[in-house]
């Protein structure tokens, strides 16, 4: 069977449940997914595993929902042997009836006609970008993020603020947009971009659609034979991710971000303490966060993502966080998956170095701790998970790191983004004195 780890944070669990209920009670447009996302990030609630995976008959559950409301409707959903969309190399034959959907809308993790078309489109885009010559990104590799066209879009400028002038990076950087407003803005700003199908989910919450979208983007790129480093839109890229190093580890199929990290302890106690600390963390929990992910283009990685999505269909609407399902799918790989009819296969995933940083520290406020800030020059990235102030936190982190590298001193903890640099800054109107 396929199990979640037990929830270790009831307070975060209740927060997620409350927010999901509120979102379900109020109809929202696709752009609201980001506003929800800024308040409840996957990182902040990793340990909120709020459900257990099991065999859930999605067809029956949806049919009962309509019947209880007095509406008679025949649903074309999963499990039919014919009429399913053709998804080419992106869905294995033995997972077609577990994963594919033949209706107009798709429930969270399931895949329908429009998404199969999206896989083909993003695959072509990724191959084109991956073929571009680059001195700083590995061959046949793209860097991706995803966002929407509401206020959260403006985080994108901070994601790549340090790299926007590096052509070797920008021509391999791909933005996946959740809506047309994002696509229009990204095109105007000169980003390589592609739009995810807007009506790709009939989820009770737009947050569910948005989080599962991440795995579908990954399947589209990896299933097309292109390597990918993917980050959430609240990750600052201080420097170009070390994709050549990742790719050189030929036995590693994927790498994930550490969910939480005691940076104060690491920098005050040294490498040996850090190793023992992380060994202890991993012995007790996964510490798996999908906010920063490396995927090697391989059949194994594609199968991993597919089985995660298939279990996402089975456990809906009680899956909890999609990253928990993704991690459990990796744990299931060596023993096989009888529920899905997947034979055992080798899969090797490893944590990214701690220089691919997380804001979740569980000890000190790392952006106001000089013992940590003075080491920020070593960091490649920072994921502002566990923070309610995404945009400000990202902008302030860039300035603190710059201060620590250029004029190091404890006062760097007070460095921050100037108001004139904010996307919403409005210069005061000029006034003319009366004579």
Please describe what this structure looks like:
- There is one protein chain.
- This protein is α/β, with parallel strands linked by helices.
- It has one domain (10-356).
- Helices cover 39% and strands 11% of the residues.
- The chain has 16 helices and ten strands.
- Strand 2 (173-177), helix 8 (180-188) and strand 3 (192-195) form a beta-alpha-beta unit.
- Helix 2 crosses helix 9 (206-222), helix 5 crosses helix 9 (206-222) and helix 13 crosses helix 14.
- The longest helix is centred in the N-terminal third of the chain and has 18 residues, at 113-130.
- Residues 1-80 have low confidence and may be disordered.
Q: Gyration radius, to the nearest Å?
A: 22 Å
Terminal CA distance reads 83 Å
Order of strands side by side in the largest beta sheet?
Answer: 3-2-1-4-7-6-8
Number of domains: 1
Could you state the order of secondary-structure elements as H and E?
Answer: HHHHHEHHEHEHEEHEHHEHHEEHEH
Give the structural class: alpha/beta
Global mean pLDDT? 82
């Amino acid at each position: 069977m396929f199990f979640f780890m037990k929830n270790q944070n009831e307070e975060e669990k209740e927060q997620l449940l409350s927010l999901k209920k509120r979102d379900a009670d109020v109809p929202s447009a696709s752009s609201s997914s980001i506003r929800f996302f800024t308040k409840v990030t996957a990182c902040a609630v990793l340990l909120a595993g709020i459900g257990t995976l099991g065999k859930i008959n999605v067809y029956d559950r949806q049919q009962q929902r309509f019947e209880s409301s007095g509406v008679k409707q025949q649903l074309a959903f999963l499990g039919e042997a014919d009429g399913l969309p053709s998804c080419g190399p992106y869905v294995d034959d033995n997972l077609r009836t577990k994963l594919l959907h033949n209706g107009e809308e798709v429930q969270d993790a399931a895949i329908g006609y429009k998404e199969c078309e999206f896989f083909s489109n993003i695959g072509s885009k990724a191959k084109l970008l991956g073929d571009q010559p680059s001195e700083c990104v590995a061959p046949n590799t793209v860097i991706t993020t995803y966002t929407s066209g509401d206020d959260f879009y403006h985080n994108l400028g901070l994601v790549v603020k340090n790299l926007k002038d590096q052509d070797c990076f920008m021509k391999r950087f791909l933005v996946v947009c959740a809506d047309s407003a994002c696509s229009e803005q990204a095109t105007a700003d000169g980003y390589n971009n592609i739009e995810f199908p807007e009506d790709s989910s009939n989820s009770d919450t737009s947050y569910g659609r948005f989080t599962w979208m991440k795995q579908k983007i990954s399947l589209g790129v990896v299933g097309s034979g292109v390597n990918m480093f993917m980050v959430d839109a609240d990750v600052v890229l201080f420097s170009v991710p070390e994709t050549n190093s990742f790719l050189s580890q030929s036995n590693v199929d994927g790498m994930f971000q550490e969910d939480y990290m005691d940076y104060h302890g690491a920098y005050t106690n040294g490498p040996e303490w850090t190793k023992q600390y992380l060994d202890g963390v991993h012995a007790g929990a996964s510490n798996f966060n999908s906010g920063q992910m490396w995927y090697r283009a391989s059949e194994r990685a594609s199968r991993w993502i597919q089985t995660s999505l298939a279990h996402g269909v089975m456990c809906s609407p009680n899956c909890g966080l999609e990253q928990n399902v993704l991690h459990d799918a990796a744990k299931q790989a060596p023993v096989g998956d009888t529920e899905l009819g997947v034979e055992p296969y080798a899969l090797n995933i490893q944590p990214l170095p701690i220089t691919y940083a997380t804001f979740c520290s569980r000890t000190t406020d790392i952006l106001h701790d000089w013992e940590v800030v003075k080491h920020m020059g070593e960091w490649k990235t920072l994921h502002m998970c566990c923070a309610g102030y995404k945009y400000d936190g990202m902008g302030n982190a860039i300035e603190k790191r710059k201060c620590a590298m250029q004029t190091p001193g404890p006062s760097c903890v007070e460095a921050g983004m100037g108001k004139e640099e904010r996307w919403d800054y409005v210069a005061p109107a000029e006034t003319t004195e009366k004579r």
